[in-house]
TrEMBL record:
Its EC number is 1.-.-.-. Pfam families: AOX. GO terms for biological process: alternative respiration. Fe cation 1 binds at residues 163, 202, 205, 307. The keyword Cell inner membrane does not apply. Fe cation 2 binds at residues 202, 253, 307, 310. It comes from Komagataella pastoris. Belongs to the alternative oxidase family. One of its GO terms (molecular function) is alternative oxidase activity. Catalyzes cyanide-resistant oxygen consumption. May increase respiration when the cytochrome respiratory pathway is restricted, or in response to low temperatures. InterPro entries: AOX, AOX_sf. This is Alternative oxidase. It is found in: Mitochondrion inner membrane. Binds 2 iron ions per subunit.
Length: 362
């Protein structure tokens, strides 16, 4: 790994401070769900074969960012859960299973810029969140529990950072369109509805993972700062170039589908027995109408399907005239238009790379 900066051990003023600086909690999950035993142990990056023992800046940040699993005594408070404000419409199981990573090739300059920015952020995100996963098919086939580098904590860290960012665009875009509707005294043609639903849906993803993992102060500071930057940048860019913003979100959602697909495949390979035995939180069961004995695999399948719909919606919005000319075909349905020329919120009409404008009756 590229060593950017060597971190020297801090002078040991107090033994407990040193321990908390260079160690983090890793969790052994009792698969019978009777008790979780937490061990204060060295990070997994030093216990895996071939792991480096030096501390680079990247490794230091990864350790500090790492989420730990909540103790049974830290489970969230279910006493004030209200019915979801925007209920989930559900998906057909067979269609959810078919979701996979698909990429829309950028053609316009603005699309290439959006994709390039997304790829750059992805590389940084992978580096600092300690993401280590084979990139080739041969590497994946050779993957064994002994060579597997991704721990449940790393996946939870990844999910929580991803979802806390993904909840911003829908909220900012709907806010701006809401203001535009008030200011210009014009209808919005149903874009606000879908964007608010997307933001709510992303926040439900985040709240679900926060019931399982507990971020530390370092991550909270990072999310505070990154939201401040991203929210403002997205706000001003959306006022100038809304289509490019939706394309950027389309690419962000492609990455989300990729992340959840990889996690699901690893669960199926038996590489993540701990995640498989996490208890699905009540907030998630209520929102996605999951059964009492639902497993994490079921939950992640639903979340991946949500991300796939966001991918489709945002790639489609990026193709539309957003100045009030076009309607949002996902929310403003016209009965006389057939499904072949009008998408909806379900997976039956799913087009991963989005609908072209000339495919739609608007
Ligand atoms: Fe999400
Ligand atoms: Fe999403």
């Amino acid at each position: 790994m590229l060593k950017l900066y060597a971190i020297r051990p801090i002078r040991p003023i107090k033994p407990c401070l040193v321990a908390s600086t260079f160690r983090h909690y890793s969790v052994k999950v009792d698969t019978s769900n009777k008790a979780d035993v937490i061990k204060d142990s060295q990070t997994d990056t030093t216990s895996k074969p071939g792991a480096e023992h030096g501390h680079t800046l990247g490794q230091y940040i990864t350790k500090k960012l790492m989420v730990r699993q909540r103790l049974p005594t830290e489970k969230g408070d279910d006493s004030f859960l209200t019915p979801p404000a925007m209920p989930h419409h559900g998906y057909r199981q067979d269609l959810m299973e078919k979701i996979h990573y698909e990429h829309r090739e950028p053609t316009l300059i603005r699309d290439k810029l959006a994709f390039g920015l997304m790829r750059s952020l992805r590389v940084c995100f992978d580096f600092f969140s300690g993401y280590k996963h084979p990139k080739t098919k041969e590497g994946l086939e050779k993957l064994t529990p002994a060579t597997y580098q991704m721990t449940p904590e790393k996946w939870l860290t990844r999910f929580i950072i991803l979802e806390s960012i993904a909840g911003v665009p829908g909220s900012v875009a709907s806010f701006l369109r809401h203001l535009q509707s008030l200011r210009l005294l014009k209808r919005d043609k149903a874009f606000i509805q879908t964007l608010q639903d997307e933001a709510y849906n992303e926040r439900m993803h985040l709240l679900t993972f926060l019931e399982i993992g507990k971020p530390g102060p370092f991550m909270k500071v990072l999310l505070y700062a990154s939201q401040g930057v991203f929210c403002n940048l997205f706000f001003f860019t959306y006022m100038l170039a809304p289509n490019a913003c939706h394309r950027f979100v389309g690419y962000l959602e492609e990455e989300a589908v990729y992340t959840y697909t990889t996690c699901l495949e690893d669960i199926e390979r038996g590489l993540l027995p701990d995640i498989e035995h996490f208890k699905v939180p009540k907030i998630a069961k209520d929102y996605w109408h999951l059964s009492e004995d639902a497993k994490m695999r079921d939950l992640i399948s639903y979340i991946r399907a949500d991300e796939a719909k966001h991918r489709e919606v945002n790639h489609t919005f990026a193709n539309l005239k957003l100045d009030g000319t076009d309607r949002n075909p996902f929310a403003l349905q016209v009965d006389s238009v057939p499904e072949s020329a009008q998408p909806n919120n379900r997976l039956s009409t799913h087009k991963a790379v989005g609908w072209e404008r000339d495919e739609l009756v608007l």
